Amino acid sequence: MAATFVGAAMGAGFATGQELLQFFVYFGSEGLWGVMLAASLLGVFAYSVLDISRRLAATSYRDVVRHAAGDAVGSGVDYLIAFFLFGGLVSMVAGCGAVMGEQFGWDQFTGAAIMAVLAAATVLLGLQGIVDSMTFLVPFMFVGIVAMGFASALATGYFFKPLLWMNPASAPVPFWPLSAIVYASYNLVLTLAVLAPMGANTASSEHAAMGAAMGGAALGAAAIGGYFAITSRLPEVVAYEVPMMFVARAFGPLVSTAYAVVIIVSIYTTAISVLYGFASRLSPDTGPVRIAFILATSTAALMLASLGFANVVRVLYPSVGVAGMILLASLAFAMFRR
Prior knowledge:
Helix content is 80%, strand content 0%. The protein is an all-alpha fold. The chain has a single domain, classed as Amino acid/polyamine transporter I (Up-down Bundle). It starts with a helix and ends with a helix. The model has no long low-confidence stretch (mean pLDDT 86).
């Protein structure tokens, strides 16, 4: 459960360092408090989704949203989430193209097309295929991101000098507490599609709490590692669309290639999560119509990925987060009401 939660959230923006830069690093040392606040919120609200889904025996995130927000508001939030799940897929596909371009010199369209094909193929296998993929891949991703962060901080002497660089005016959200809330909000939206059906199969409220707590803690630890990696290479790292690749290159071609694989795996786990959620909401469960829908969605995401990864992160992610705050408020009210 924790591995699936982490895999769904730790996508292109996270592993590349682009979202950590924009939501936390720009705030300097205060950004570290933002990381911890965001991880705590993710753990609490993931538990809320899992437990509501368990009690409702939910078949999709729609059941959870409408239970928490009511039919009127829930219906609007439901369709907003579906729209943003597709936007998340665009972001993942664009992110893969950016990594392939910066690290391997590939044409970005080719890298994006590979991710679109892999995501579609996995989602056609169903939810169990997604869970199996994440359970196997997430520990590899987690170790790679945390190790890179601490290695870079040690190599640059970051732990022994104060952080003087900050540029909050460049952040998409103006204050670090609000930035942390928006970050938690959009990550919950991106993970909702797999948390809800998984919660329906959870044995007890205690199991849901344990899975959510472990997932939130792992995301927090990985985000701190990424924060250290990026801040240890400021201000040069800000100029790169994939900041963590710039950090990895300082350790030589072998490490940078290995970290590129970590990023691609992270992108893949989130891509299959958001594509699965989008397809589950808007197409039948089985049959040729679902196959055609998944293939058409992946193709459309590939076409829109040409907008550029950094642009997608800067515009889409805060928008998802602000809209997702309605979901956070609804889930908080549902927990209080219970």
